[in-house]
């Protein structure tokens, strides 16, 4: 308020509020990093953060929010973007970017300017632009498919501002200068090709990616020449102003060029209402920063984001009688970042001993009798040391020594999810995606749940590992370690990945009785003796062929096999089996399955089917967040039919199946994605993904 009173023209105040005001202002609600929001599986949380950030910003007198981050973090070695990004999938990043913008603009009482950063994309870099100039060496086609997707989505959603990156992109500007001062990138691509007419701001101009190459005055002039409107944090503000004035006097910059940017800044001030009121109502500040339900919402997001990546030994959740201890690897000596995690563990498991460790400790003495060691690691952005280890000091050696000693190790990344790449031998691992204190409680909750928390699986989000094996065959690994195979078609399947083999099969689900869905059952049944679930006719026929452990059920029924509950759903398709002599046997009604995960999410595997109106009832009964739909046409529905099915089911994500195996199956995932607004996950045979 004092600064606004001194100014002749109302000041436009910006804030770097990627995690709400908590990123820069203490005592505010602590939201996790963006990647945690994406890990929840719901864009509504990003929409909420946009709304909350606008409220907090205006309460503090900030009008211009430097968020959200629109970078696609498709390089796990990225030392500066990492968990600040929504993730490595451009479509997913775009969905959250759009939701954030919509949320931030949803309250007329708190108008703010929203900013996408860092154009044209800082996600696939291995250099921190604070300390050097990264170079993104990819072709224009790759940029269109990955980096530019979220920016296009944000521009379409009406974003107010875009922040530039101090990175070189030779495919866009062969001179190799930083994007911030590149006219082909700023004026040619962003203004011209993408049609963005809002405010363009630089990233901080005191960062080495720019400042190490150009003086403050020269960098300022070059940025304005490129088409930038606002010069953010010049290394020497006075020199930057003098450089611009000298460029105008010499004719290098025209007055008209500068006036064009000034008009944009003035228009932005009007847009946020500064011409009507420039002062903060201090008596309303506390209520805005401690809004009802905000802290609870932050904790809800934190808890739902926790992702279990590996649980091969079935150690999670930790058994009540486990002889366990907890090691908390602090980021540095004297750092209290992990206290929230230790406090939460003390509440949830008061008898488990805990130990706070710092990077300078040469070794750690695990308490006597401790067979299971829970290691909570504050894995911040960036690597440490020449081998790009994900943890500092002696931490990597401590973790590896625990594994060698035969301890049952549970590794928790309280931050960077890519930590597991440094410890492939660890068999139990989950991540919280953020070191923010709220996140620590969520991590502790996934280790040991309070007996009275009233949930089936606490706050952790179960991870289903899905491997498509071509055609309609899927291998699913549950967090319990159990393996479920759906419609095994191995021999004769042109899309079955070469060299792939099963190491474990606990459950087989057959949707109907055609050879391209059940021919692999005898081999897997012989090797692993799994439970085989099918409709009554198919199960009876399989039992007659000598298959053991068959479970014959029917449409509408549910059964729990091992740790998995499944419900059989209708399908519109035929079903039959063929005897060795060529005669056919009626195979009952074709069906699909809804898999009910322990965290409350449901996955719908439709089997072979056309679209049918009762898919709306499947949505009403089961609300599947994931739908696996056939798209090949000829034997099943086409991409157009699958698009209508998607509208009826309303899943968050769709996985296409039953396409590309044979020439008549002509439907493609690209056709489906063009017809639907939700995310289409195109899997490669043999390559697992987690959901």
Give a brief rundown of this model.
The chain is an alpha/beta fold. Helices cover 30% and strands 17% of the residues.
**Beta-strand content bin:** 15-25%
Low-confidence sequence ranges: 382-389, 449-460
Helix content: 25-40%
Number of helices: 22
The computed structural class is alpha/beta
Which structural traits does this protein have?
globular; 691 residues; 28 strands; 7-stranded mixed beta sheet; alpha/beta
Question: What would your notes on this structure say?
Answer:
The chain is an alpha/beta fold. The chain is built from 22 helices and 28 strands. The strands form 5 sheets. It has a 7-stranded mixed sheet, with helices on one face. A 7-stranded mixed sheet has the order 19-20-23-24-25-26-27. The two termini are 48 Å apart.
Q: What topology emerges from the helices and strands here?
A:
Blueprint: H1 2-6, E1 14-15, E2 18-21, H2 34-39, H3 44-60, E3 64-65, H4 90-104, E4 113-119, H5 140-145, H6 148-156, E5 161-164, H7 183-193, E6 199-201, H8 208-211, H9 216-226, H10 237-250, H11 255-271, H12 285-289, H13 294-305, E7 307-311, E8 324-329, H14 339-348, E9 354-357, E10 372-377, H15 395-404, E11 408-413, E12 428-431, H16 437-447, E13 465-468, E14 474-477, E15 483-486, E16 507-509, H17 515-518, H18 521-528, E17 531-535, H19 536-544, E18 550-553, E19 558-561, E20 564-570, E21 576-578, E22 584-586, E23 591-596, E24 602-605, H20 615-622, E25 626-630, H21 639-649, E26 653-657, H22 669-675, E27 679-680, E28 689-690
Parallel strand pairs: 1-3, 3-4, 4-5, 5-6, 8-9, 8-10, 10-11, 11-12, 15-16, 16-17, 17-18, 24-25, 25-26, 26-27
Antiparallel strand pairs: 7-12, 13-14, 13-28, 14-15, 19-20, 20-23, 21-22, 23-24
Helix pairs in contact: 3-4, 4-6, 9-10, 13-16, 14-16, 21-22
